[in-house]
Amino acid sequence: MLDREKLLAITDNVVFDEDMKKHTSFRIGGTADAFVSVTSALEIEKIICFCADTETPYMIMGNGSNILVSDKGIRGVVIHIGNGMSKCRIEGCDVYADAGILMSALSKKLLEANLTGFEFASGIPGTLGGGIFMNAGAYGGELKDIIESVTFICPDGIIKTETAENLGFAYRRSMFTEGGYVILSCKLRLREGNYEDIKAMMADFNSRRTEKQPLNLPSAGSTFKRPEGYFAGKLIQDAGLMGYSIGGAQVSEKHAGFVVNTGGASAADVTNLIKHIQNTVNEKFGVWLEPEVRLAGEGE
Ligand SMILES: Cc1cc2nc3c(=O)[nH]c(=O)nc-3n(C[C@H](O)[C@H](O)[C@H](O)COP(=O)(O)OP(=O)(O)OC[C@H]3O[C@@H](n4cnc5c(N)ncnc54)[C@H](O)[C@@H]3O)c2cc1C
Questions:
Q1: What stretches of the chain show up as alpha helix (H) in DSSP?
Q2: Which of 51, 145, 161, 260 is the most exposed place for a label (fewest CB within 10 A)?
Q3: Which of 18, 43, 142, 292 is catalytic?
């Protein structure tokens, strides 16, 4: 049972029984017992200590663009690393940025500084911390390619800075996906570029997104990771599942790699649709699709 008084004594930035639909791009999910929009590493450490002392579970969240929160919601504390921790400093080609900055906002700052290398991430709707966690990527680029080092809280509470090669980056994976880490900030290494070229590249990537992706409906982006040698969207389409729906969850009619919320979808609708897609694709093509979307919250 969450000790609300004790948590309030640590932070003012807490909302109780917060509706997670407001905080996820899927617009799905029950309530979180406590939702804290943090403003410093110290505040995060205090909350983690509180959770350890009171045996309260906690989870870290960025922009909620790769999370499916269960219908029963989240027990314990959601530590939201967003706007409150979103500073960025540029020194030549080195960029020091907090985990909570949105990748879209960072890309605009880098454009203004004539720095190239981050364009691929300008349309990914997440925080830098969430992007590092997932090793987010698009159009041939991945965050690991431009990360110099990351500063994070370890499961034992110690704050560490490690260079990219020690962070286990792989396709949509990092050491952080093992769990228990909190990404605080990072140093990126970019290159000098030309303002107009950077702007044109960002515009090109973003128009390709608008053309191909169902951005008019809530989703969490690509539902599945790309299986080796295949494209998830193509397999799903070839399995005849485009437009297939369960409740309010649908395989997008625009891009079969996306499950979208057509209105009022429950988390159970989405998970049932995911299972149906996995089984159908496996039966037809012998390929098991691994979800890219991360499940959070109390199980059904
Ligand atoms: C329309 C759409 C298009 C998308 N396109 C792409 C794309 O092209 N490429 C791509 O890679 N992804 C894409 N995504 C998915 C998503 O935007 C990325 O995975 C993004 O990096 C998630 O960031 P976030 O801040 O929203 O993380 P969240 O969804 O909040 O969290 C994702 C995971 O990261 C963890 N996490 C978040 N922040 C931290 C932190 N500071 N410390 C420790 N753990 C943390 C969370 O616990 C969670 O497990 C898309 C999503 C949507 C909705």
A1: 4-10, 41-54, 103-112, 128-134, 195-212, 232-238, 267-285
A2: 161
A3: 292
Give me the number of domains the chain comprises.
Answer: 3
Supply the residue whose CA is at minimum distance from atom 12 of ligand 1: 136
User: Is residue 127 in contact with ligand 1, taking CB distance under 6 Å?
Assistant: yes
Active-site residue (options: 86, 172, 252, 266) = 172
Domain of residue 257: give its range: 232-296
For the stretch 266-277, what's the b/e string if a residue is b when 16 or more beta carbons lie within 10 angstroms of its beta carbon? bbbbbbebbeeb
CATH number at residue 256: 3.90.78.10
65-113 confidence digits (pLDDT tens): 999 999 999 999 999 999 999 999 999 999 999 999 999 999 999 999 9
222 in active site:
yes
Q: 142 and 174 share a domain?
A: yes
Report the greatest alpha carbon distance in the chain: 56
Q: Which atom of ligand 1 is nearest to the CA of 219?
A: 53
- Tell how far the Cα of 160 is from the centroid of ligand 1, in angstroms: 22
Residue ending a domain, choose from 212, 244, 266: 212
Q: What is the mean pLDDT of the chain?
A: 97
